[in-house]
Amino acid sequence: MAGRAASSVLFATRHRGLREQLRRLARAADSANTVLLLGAPGTGKDRLARLLHDLSARAAAPFVRVDLAAVSDDLFESELFGHERGAFTGAVAGKPGLLEGAGVGTLYLDRVDALSLRAQGKLLRVVEERLVRRVGGTRLLPLKARLVASAGPDLPRRARAGTFREDLFYRLAVVTVSLPPLVERREDLLPAARALAKAGGGPAAFTAAARRVILGHAWRGNFRELENVVRRAASEALAEGAATIDAGHLKLAGPSDPEALLHAAAHARWSLRQLADAYIALILDEAGGNVAEAARRLGVARKTLYARRTDS
Predict the structure, then answer these.
(1) pLDDT tens digits for 189-206?
(2) Which of 9, 64, 272, 285 has its CA 20 to 30 A from that of 58?
(3) Are 164 and 192 found together in one domain?
(4) 142 & 223 share domain
(5) Distance (Å, rounded) from C-alpha 288 to C-alpha 277?
(6) 193 and 67 housed in the same domain
(7) Residues 78, 149: one domain?
């Protein structure tokens, strides 16, 4: 699936808190402010960084991603800042760093929380001064690129505890988006699954058993896991000539009826809110998206269900 199509599915959310964060991010798209994306693996940080770049006036300029967890301390300065000829053994020619290479585009610092405290200090200086000096060089070059960083959801706690530099955290977190895990976005699961299946060329309809499996699965791999599972299931259903995706196509251990959903919730130790969200999503889906009918089946007022769906 094309990345842009998957991104549109991922961020077409009904989750009220995430919608508000995404609106704030869209308003800041054309600013030069640094952006910090927080979330567990698979929640879509990479795609959101790219989407932010594509929505900005920098879209025609380079988008450069660097996985900081894969860059050793010894290579950090040379990779990001570049080096001059003779700066160290093996430096037979000068080389611009990624900060230069991004030009007026976007430099995406993926997994910034993997940096050592020493490397964090060097990055802090560049972020503060907006100036870059190559290793072994004397010239100060202006930093023109927009910086976007990503980290795990515990980065604020690490900053308070001193295992990540608090001053760097605040420099990066001018605009912050916290991406919730998919288990907290159960209202998005079925619409996302249908859209992913359709975009992948397979049937976009799921049987009742398949829908219950999707709602009851833990999705520890978040959106990345959902995309892989649905793409595989849609491909298998298409190969069989099936008009719908069934639970067997998903190849997931999950509930196939409301009672099993309850047992799955108890086994996974869901909160009461998570269980209620999953059950509401199930009833709403079975009611064909009709809120009035879903409210009748749930025995609550329609306005109560409306408020519950938007108070996430």
Answers:
(1) 888 899 899 887 888 899
(2) 9
(3) no
(4) no
(5) 17
(6) no
(7) yes
Looking from the CA of 19 toward its CB, the CA atoms found within 13 Å total 12
Residue 297 — very low, low, confident or very high, per pLDDT cuts 50/70/90?
confident
For residues 230 and 178, give the distance between their C-alpha atoms in angstroms, rounded to a whole number.
Answer: 25
Per-residue tokens: 283: 């009833």
Q: Domain boundary residue among 163, 179, 195?
A: 179
Query: What's the length of the chain?
Result: 312
Mean pLDDT of 252-262: 57
If asked whether residues 100 and 35 sit together in one domain, one would say: yes
Confidence (pLDDT) at 256: 47
pLDDT surpasses 80 at 180:
yes
User: Can you say how many angstroms the Cα of residue 21 is from the centroid of all Cα atoms in its chain?
Assistant: 13
What 3-state DSSP class applies to 241? coil
Q: Are 65 and 110 in contact (CB under 8 A)?
A: yes
Residue 87 φ then ψ, to 5°: -65, -30
Position with higher pLDDT, 49 vs 13: 49
The parent domain of residue 162 ranges over 3-179
pLDDT score recorded for residue 1: 41
Domain boundary among the residues 153, 179, 205 is at: 179
Residues 160 and 187 in one domain: no
Q: Are 205 and 240 found together in one domain?
A: yes
CA–CA separation, 105 and 59 (whole Å): 7
What percent of the chain is predicted at pLDDT more than 70? 85
**CA separation for the pair 262, 26 (Å, rounded):** 38
For β-strands 146-151 and 106-110, DSSP reports them as parallel
Helix, strand, coil fractions of the chain, as percent rounded to 5:
55, 10, 35
Looking at the structure, tell me whether residues 87 and 217 fall in a common domain: no
Smallest Cα–Cα separation from 224: which of 52, 8, 10, 50?
A: 10
Quick one: average pLDDT of 171-194?
A: 89
